[in-house]
Amino acid sequence: AAERELITSLFDVTTKDALTSVLLVTSAEQEESNSSLVALLEDRAINVTVVKRLEELQSARADAYDAIIGNKVITENCLTNKPSDLDTFVVSTLKALKKGGVLIAREDLSGYSAREKVAQLTHFFDLFRTTVNGVTIGFKFYSLKQINASIHTGGNFLDVFWTLRKEYFEALDENQKTKTFRDFLDTTQYTDESIRAYEWIFGDNFISPGGYDENLEVLKRFGDLKPGCKMLDIGVGIGGGARQAARHWLKPGGKVLITIYGMGHGTLSAKFQAYVEKRKYFLKTLEEMVEITEAAGFENVQGTNLTKRFRDILLDERTKTLNRKNEFLEKFGEETFNSLLNGWNDKIDFIDDDNHNWNQIFATKPL
Questions:
Q1: Has residue 321 got a pLDDT over 70?
Q2: Where is the Phosphoethanolamine N-methyltransferase 2 N-terminal domain positioned along the sequence (predicted)?
Q3: How far apart are CA 340 and CA 346, in angstroms?
Q4: Residue 27 in this model has a pLDDT that exceeds 70
Q5: Which of 30, 47, 203, 334 is most buried by its number of CB atoms within 10 A?
Q6: What pLDDT sits at residue 175?
């Protein structure tokens, strides 16, 4: 069952016609799993090459494979503790893949005491770059998923796999500090220290205005959520909202609800424009968001301006933090305190100038 999940995910990002050759990188310890993977691929008339030693991968033909499946290569070879060998594995994989080729990397991390290995490997794959014949290559992150079969049969939530696509990138400018948008967020607004400070203000697992209570009010807009529902969580923080929805309901029925920073109708100040540029925001007015949602094919689109509520939340959070200033300073320091305080003050000014809005879109997918 686990092997079928890997092959299904491979076909989710490719087409049968685009897959003619697959390289399986594995070890002798995975013989049963390897046989299943080979059989599933050969049933689809795909040529499969199997290598069981990393040295064989290093000597693989360049630009030869449409896809590579790594079956527990990193964990079984202890590559997380061998940075140079891990680099060699990824470089060899990139060289062997055709442009646009896909890597499915399955790893069972349940044996590691450090649960952050999942995040560390995701970060590693996302930022890795190498130069071959003057061209910068790396992976474009597609997805990270758990093996459902391992969850249901053994309660193992750390048997996971990454789906990555080989891409060509522009060479980094010497003044460029970040490689991807995810990297930019991780090293600026959403550092570990910033997230801990946000959680102190908004509550555990929440990093957005209003925290648990406000998110629950937003979720109630769905109205008819019932146990057994499924919800798609897109870019809403560090998981608090998804856990909250799971505890209360589980499964929207064809409806979409978006809360999003937006742009008002006032004359945009230079300070606000600099703020937008620094945060890499792509802001639209409420009317533009309604048009975009309708153009995407949704029906019964309702746009609501939540900016007044946003302003009230900012004032409330600023007051609460000022009242507990000494406690905050002990935990996070004056620099973080001043950064947050300045952020609240700036946002309130932006709202008063009708520059910064907080909007909500509610729509229905047509039958």
A1: yes
A2: 46-169
A3: 10
A4: yes
A5: 30
A6: 61
